[in-house]
C-alpha cells in the first residue's frame, strides 16, 4: 500500500532555532495534513493543504503542498519550549483511498533545549 | 470547536478480560475511527465507521470489534485482552464532504497485565 516517509525521525534543537521537516511518498496525494501530538495527548490538527503548490501559515508554522503532489513540508520558525512533541503528516490518496481514510507518517519527535 | 472525548485516559486490565473503550464526538460527524499507536509503528487503523451500524475493518482488526449504535458514539471492544494489546488507543472523527480532516480524542493508554 501507499506509504509516507517522514523525516527526520527526531530533532533536538536550541530554543529560537527554525525547524524543518518533511513527508515524501512515491505516490501522489490529494490532501496533506499536519498534526502535533503533545506527550500523553491526542494529535491536534495544525494545517490542512488541498492544492499542489499551496503554502499555508498558522502563526509560526508554515506548511507547503509540494508541486509534484508527492511531498509536503512543515517549517517552524523561532522554536519555543512548548513546540516539543511529535509532528505527524497525513495524506489522502487519490480517489479518496479507502473511504477517504488518511495515511499517516510515523512522526518527527521534536525536542527543544531552552 | 470539534470535541472528541474518550471514556478513560488510563486503563489497566488483566489478560482475558473483555475491555470496552468508548468514544463520543459532538460535531454530528458521519465518520469515526479507532487507531492504536505504538512507538516506531505510528498510527495504525483498527476499524472505522462511516454511518450508524456500519463498520469497516482497517489494517489491524484482529482481536478487536466495534459497535456504533448512535451517530455520536463509537466503541472499541477487546473481546479477550492480551498483553500485545497494550497500547495507546486514539479515536477520531470526520465529517462528510470534501474536508478529510480528522479530529482526535485525547487517547486511552491501555495496559494489559
Protein architecture, described:
The complex is a heterodimer of chains A (114) and B (113). Chain A is an all-beta fold and 114 residues long. Chain A has strands at residues 5-7, 10-14, 19-24, 31-37, 44-49, 55-58, 61-65, 71-76, 85-92, 103-104, 108-113. Chain A is globular. With 113 residues, chain B is an all-beta fold. In chain B, strand 5 and strand 6 (56-57) form a beta hairpin. Chain B is globular and about 40 Å long. The model of chain B has no long low-confidence stretch (mean pLDDT 94). The chains are: A mainly beta (114), B mainly beta (113).
Q: Quick gist of this model?
A:
With 114 residues, chain A is mainly β.
Key descriptive features of the protein:
heterodimer, A: 114 residues, mainly beta, six-stranded mixed beta sheet, five-stranded antiparallel beta sheet, 0% helix, 51% strand, globular, B: 113 residues, seven-stranded mixed beta sheet, 53% strand
**Annotation field: number of helices of chain A:** 0
DSSP, total strands of chain A: 11
Total count of helical runs of at least 4 residues of chain B: 0
As a percent range, the share of strand residues of chain B is over 45%
Most extensive interface, chain pair and sizes? A-B, 23 and 25 residues
The helix content of chain A is under 10%
End-to-end distance of chain A, in Å? 40 Å
Beta-strand segment tally of chain B: 11
What gross morphology of chain B would you assign? globular
Rg over CA atoms of chain A: 14 Å
Q: Would you tell me the structural class of the helices and strands of chain A? A: mainly beta
Order of SSEs of chain A: EEEEEEEEEEE
Largest sheet of chain A: 6 strands, mixed
SS-derived structural category of chain B: mainly beta
Intertermini distance of chain B: 37 Å
- Average per-residue pLDDT of chain B, rounded, comes to 94
Note the quaternary state here: heterodimer
Low-pLDDT parts of chain A are none
Q: Estimate the global geometry of chain A from the Cα principal axes.
A: globular
